[in-house]
């Protein structure tokens, strides 16, 4: 009887273990090609210089991983970290790594790699992180501790989302052995895919990492291609040369509607277009006159631009903080009023219009840029198109070398405070100038731990940018993604506030 009971207990235990044990890993198979709307820069392999843009994360999150990052269904989740804690006074954050994690070359991931990666980070938000983090200590091989100079409610937003790439962890030993240039030629990471080869600026080939902590990718080979021309991306999708045609222009996307072989998916990430008045801070520039900046706002036919470029998916915007972000000010856009625009030009001393020089749109969105340029020329703000390569555009923007009017789009996540820090705060990395009262409000909210009070301050800042016509917002971007017939699960929008697939979760249809 005793032996029978013991047998029953063992059998029940075995059944329970079978129920909770993970299914056998599926062997990665097949290939997927993703065609990007921009040139893929080798600099994106190194997160340390990542700009405040979402596009580089479309490469980085395939190869690299972070302590904390957005994951399917979660805006911010433990990834390489097993857990993290915040002290009651908001000054100390402690992260514990998962055990047994390794980089693609087999090196273990340790607290030393975390510290190395953070210490050398110099991308978007780096100035704010350095100003607020007192020190980063290694507690033990799997634990790091951040100590802040004062409570900072946005520490996790800056460290654990795509607001910055500061939380991505690189292999210290390997990086130091090959140097920064060597790393860009052959990066090693801890993400779901391993680097296989590249043709710089043309193509990146990746292979599945069977040891990725979430699960092995379902697709064995992932190829990323640089295809800046929208019509070419569409042609490749139709011919089967690519499975994802990213960020199609409206005319190309329109041809996919109603074709059952393809899916057309609009993204839900925190991206927005606006026009910058780079010279408004120069008292000798015409753009120092608020009336000219207001004229540009009235000149833009945002509804028509949306329909032409986005098939109506992109909501016209009234402020440069996307409406999907926390603490975003929900306001209507300026009305389209070309007569009002001409009136303002005349009041500013330009009854016959203004020769405004170059207009530089961010590459990859030709229909948006051409539509905005045509609107400006139609009311007498005479501009000529200047085209640039994407990486050169970013560099010139950060170095404050873009002059005249330029149009940008920004899609990294975070919240209203992270956008204010980069573009409105006068010391922000991409701000051409600012106002002392807005700077003071930004610093005030960064110390305020009451969410309601922070929200009120951030919304006041946003309203003042409208009142002062600091920018000309155009529309929130809903990227139009063409998906080919071989894809069973495309995973677009699986990760909140992110405009690329969850690569390891992509599934192909069964042959």
Overview of the molecule:
This protein is an alpha+beta fold and 511 residues long. It has 3 domains: 46-172, Dipeptide-binding Protein, domain 1; 176-268 and 480-508, Periplasmic binding protein-like II (D-Maltodextrin-Binding Protein, domain 2); 271-477, Dipeptide-binding Protein, domain 3. The protein is built from 16 helices and 20 strands. It has helices spanning 2-20, 57-63, 111-119, 126-132, 155-160, 172-185, 230-239, 250-254, 290-299, 302-310, 338-347, 366-379, 390-398, 416-423, 436-447, 451-467; strands at residues 31-36, 68-71, 74-78, 81-86, 92-97, 133-140, 143-148, 193-199, 203-208, 221-226, 244-245, 263-266, 271-277, 354-361, 381-385, 405-410, 471-477, 480-483, 487-489, 507-508. The strands form 5 sheets. A 7-stranded mixed β-sheet has the order 8-9-10-1-11-18-12. A 5-stranded mixed β-sheet has the order 15-14-16-13-17. Helix 12 links the parallel strand 14 and strand 15 (381-385). Helix 10 packs antiparallel against helix 12 (366-379) and helix 15 (436-447) packs antiparallel against helix 16. The chain is globular and about 70 Å long.
Characteristics:
alpha+beta, D-Maltodextrin-Binding Protein, domain 2, 511 residues, Dipeptide-binding Protein, domain 3, 32% helix
Structural class by sheet pairing and helices: alpha+beta
Multimeric state: single chain
Count of spatially separate domains: 3
Helix content percent band: 25-40%
Summarize the biggest pleated sheet.
7 strands, mixed
How far from one another are the termini? 54 Å
Helices, by number, come to 16
């Amino acid at each position: 009887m005793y032996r029978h009971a013991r047998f029953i207990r063992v059998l029940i235990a075995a059944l329970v273990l079978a129920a909770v044990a993970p299914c056998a890993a599926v062997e990665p198979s097949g290939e997927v090609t993703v065609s990007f709307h921009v040139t893929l820069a080798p600099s994106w392999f190194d997160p340390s210089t990542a700009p405040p843009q979402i596009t580089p994360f479309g490469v980085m999150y395939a190869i690299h991983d972070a302590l904390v990052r957005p994951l399917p269904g979660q805006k911010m989740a433990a990834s390489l970290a097993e857990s993290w804690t915040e002290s009651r006074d908001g000054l100390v954050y402690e992260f514990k790594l998962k055990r047994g994690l390794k980089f693609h070359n087999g090196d273990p991931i340790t607290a030393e790699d975390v510290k190395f990666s953070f210490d050398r980070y110099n991308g978007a938000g780096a100035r704010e992180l350095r100003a607020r983090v007192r020190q980063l200590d290694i507690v033990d091989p799997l634990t790091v501790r951040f100590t802040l100079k004062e409570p900072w409610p946005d520490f996790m937003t800056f460290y654990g989302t795509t607001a910055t790439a500061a939380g991505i962890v690189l292999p210290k030993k390997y990086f130091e052995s090959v140097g920064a240039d060597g790393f860009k030629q052959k990066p090693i990471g801890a993400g779901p895919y391993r680097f296989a080869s590249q043709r710089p600026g043309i193509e990146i080939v990746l292979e599945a990492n069977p040891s990725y902590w979430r699960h092995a990718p379902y697709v064995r080979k992932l190829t990323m291609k640089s295809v800046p021309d929208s019509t070419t991306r569409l042609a490749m999708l139709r011919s089967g040369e690519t499975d994802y045609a990213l960020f199609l222009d409206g005319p190309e996307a329109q041809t996919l509607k109603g074709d059952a072989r393809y899916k057309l998916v609009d993204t839900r990430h925190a991206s927005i277009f606006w026009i910058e008045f780079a010279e408004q801070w120069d008292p000798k520039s015409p753009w120092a006159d608020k009336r000219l900046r207001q004229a540009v706002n009235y000149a833009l036919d945002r509804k028509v631009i949306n329909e032409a470029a986005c098939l109506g998916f992109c909501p016209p915007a009234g402020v440069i903080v996307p409406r999907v972000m926390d603490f975003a000010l929900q306001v209507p856009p300026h009305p389209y009023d070309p007569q009002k625009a001409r009136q303002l030009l005349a009041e500013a001393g330009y009854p016959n219009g203004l020769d405004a020089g170059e207009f530089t749109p961010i590459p990859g969105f030709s229909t948006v840029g051409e539509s905005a340029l045509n609107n400006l020329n139609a009311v007498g703000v005479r501009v000529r198109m200047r085209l640039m390569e994407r990486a050169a555009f970013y560099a010139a923007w950060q170095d404050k070398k873009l002059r005249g009017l330029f149009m940008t789009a920004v899609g990294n996540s975070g919240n209203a405070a992270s956008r204010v820090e980069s573009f409105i705060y006068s010391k922000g990395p991409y701000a051409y100038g600012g106002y002392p009262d807005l700077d003071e409000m930004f610093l005030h909210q960064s110390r305020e731990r009451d969410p309601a009070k922070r929200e009120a301050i951030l919304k006041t800042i946003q309203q003042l940018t409208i009142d002062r016509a600091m920018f000309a917002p155009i529309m929130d971007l809903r990227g139009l993604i063409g998906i080919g017939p071989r894809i069973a699960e495309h995973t677009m929008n699986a990760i909140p506030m992110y405009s690329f697939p969850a690569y390891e979760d992509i599934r192909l249809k069964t042959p």
